[in-house]
Fold this sequence. Notes:
Blueprint: E1 4-10, H1 26-30, H2 38-54, E2 58-62, H3 70-75, H4 85-92, E3 103-106, E4 116-120, H5 127-130, H6 133-143, E5 150-153, E6 168-171, E7 180-185, H7 198-207, E8 215-219, H8 222-226, E9 236-239, E10 242-246, H9 253-263, E11 268-272, H10 279-285, E12 291-294, E13 300-305, H11 306-310, H12 312-323, E14 328-334, H13 337-340, E15 350-355, H14 368-381, H15 394-410
Parallel strand pairs: 1-2, 4-5, 7-8, 10-11, 13-14
Antiparallel strand pairs: 1-15, 3-4, 6-7, 9-10, 12-13
Amino acid sequence: MALVEINFDGIIGPSHNYAGLSPGNIASANNAGAVSQPRAAALQGIEKMRANLRLGLAQGFFMPLDRPNRAWLAALATDMGHADPHIRAAAFSASAMWAANAATVSPAPDAQDGKCHLSAANLLTMAHRSHEWTGTLAQLRLAFADQRHFAVHGPVPPPFGDEGAANFMRLCPSHGEAGLEIFVYGKSGGPFPARQHIESSKAIARAHRLDPERTLFIQQSEAAIAAGAFHNDVVAVANERVLFTHEQAFEDPEAAYAAIKAIMPEAEIVVVPADRVSLADAVQSYLFNAQLVTLPSGEMALILPTEAQANPHVWGWLEEHVAGNGPIRRLVPVDVRQSMANGGGPACLRLRVVADPATIDQRFIADEGKLDRMAEMIAVHWPDAIAPDQLGDPGLIEQVQRARLALLETCGLSELA
């Protein structure tokens, strides 16, 4: 099989809004109550995928989930007309757009059974995300239905929180070779909850049939969580042999680096010092919430938000790195401002899957024509703007549901309705 890395982006759903539902996510809290622009958000996401295709990268996508989630509301013995405002907002959330939280993915070369394993995340720490997994699991089982090549697992049971690939990294000589899988867990972070439990990470490693000698469990820095790095991918990202990390990403960084080097001596660890880029700058700019990718030329590129380019400390360090002999050779800023305002950068929007594209349901694989058709449909059906006090409006709810059904029909995925 020709194994390649495919980035599956979550299409930003028509219910995208700023309700401030995510404690510890500074951007989400700061923009609570603002008016969102779902149409612009979704089109920004489409353009990001289009840009990746033009870089020569393999690209996939996932559909928005059905919102509001009436089944979840019914389980709480309420509905959109009677639910308390915070429950109504949680039922309406478009947070499944951040596909990095959809699942943890172990490519076939790492698993003892030679299959690519995907475990849906339970996301139970946050109410608005805790009910995503059923829709996500249905979508994963459709996209990766070929059981000769994939094993799709349900979520880790409570009480152990799991937030998927946002707290997971993989180092390897190349995507198609066996690698080192790194699970990053949290313990505490000042006033903010740690979202990834070590027991979840261990359970996923067992389910994925990983080699314990090539699996690490590393604690995220409490200081990073307190600064707003609610997921590890806000302060660190890996690609093939390169780990790109903030100096304060891990609780014991020297031990973490030593453990990585002991298993994979060729790993290149690029540390951004705190005296050049503070944790506050890293969180504000989402420097590390970027897609670190290998281009067809073999060069590594960093696809990062325009907010990173606008931060002089961040951009200054990056330009020095690229001008030197560092492994990152190209910087590609992208506009995902609507997602950024809710605390999700380019890395949040995508789930990395190493697989042979031919083994995946082709309806989930992007090309320019599909993106054109989706963009045309979104421009017609997605709401232009949503204010938080509109979330219970029956007219808006009807528009959101019609819009999603139109997208499913456009993509030939009506069975997800």
